[in-house]
Amino acid sequence: MKPTARSDDRVKVRAPGKVNLALRVGGARPDGYHPLNTVFQALSLFDDLTALLAPAGEYRIETLGDQAHLVPTDDSNLALRAARLLASRHGGEDRYGVAFEIRKTIPVTGGMAGGSADAAAALVACAHLWHIDISPSELEALGAELGADVPFCLLGSTAFGRGRGDVLVPILSRGGYHWVLALPEVELSTPAVFRRFDELNPDAGAAPPVPPGLLEGLASGDVRRVAEHLVNDLQPAALSLRPHLAEVLDAGVGAGALAGIVSGSGPTCAFLTANEDAAVRLSGALAGLGVCRAIRRASGPVPGARLFG
Ligand code: C5P
Description:
By secondary structure, the chain is α+β, with helices and mostly antiparallel strands. It has two domains: 162 residues, Ribosomal Protein S5, domain 2, CATH 3.30.230.10; 124 residues, Alpha-Beta Plaits (2-Layer Sandwich). Helix content is 33%, strand content 27%. The strands form two sheets. Strands 1, 2, 3, 4, 5, 6, 8 and 12 form an eight-stranded mixed sheet that branches. The chain is globular and about 55 Å long.
């Protein structure tokens, strides 16, 4: 699958990863999900998906990039599930077919919504490729069936998330934010982190509110105010499962970050910096310390999943 010419049979979509600037978590609901009050920012760390028309009933995927071998390519793959879900709601899986190629840049199981970004990209790509007339709100509803972060990967930019994190309202955000992302050697499973949260917070009730200072900082483009109010209620759970992350966070703050947090359920650690120069310096310093597997720089906010190329 190495298409060179642009045609109606081929669509390219780019989808962003995310960091939660605030992730406030309540006690588990009867369905096992946790109520959230969260602020998402989409980052310029993208997965690029190419979708090629395939014979009806055929759904295939190939992944490329750094950690591509860690992504399942069977029917559990979230992009394939997205394609099948869209097809099943618009005439049936046997009526359509698609072959995906995904170039991964978003860390796999890193707490940055990499799988959700691929699902969002697959929905946008297949709707276009198969000429399915679908509204953004219908796409969002399909996305929410696939995973709590998929609607945000469709929307992008900066948004407030309630419910499971899938009920979204855009947030006013001025300016650009420069991040350094430290990708540790260790892995973390999202359900395991939520389970540890339950153990650490047996009396958790409703999700606490996001800090008003964070929203004020975003509205005025004040990066230092934003940095002061970053909060992740899953961080103690992630640190208790992977104590090494505390060392990574200390190293980033010691090397000049305004603040450092675990991204989502981790293990990626996200450091907010004062500006692009500071991010370049911090990424160099962190690389030199050797506390993690890889370092990436990214800025946000950026748009959600969209056609390109
Ligand atoms: O929705 P998604 O499949 O991305 O969620 C992965 C897992 O994260 C869920 O199975 C659940 O264990 C946990 N989760 C949660 N509460 C949320 C979002 C995710 O407990 N609001």
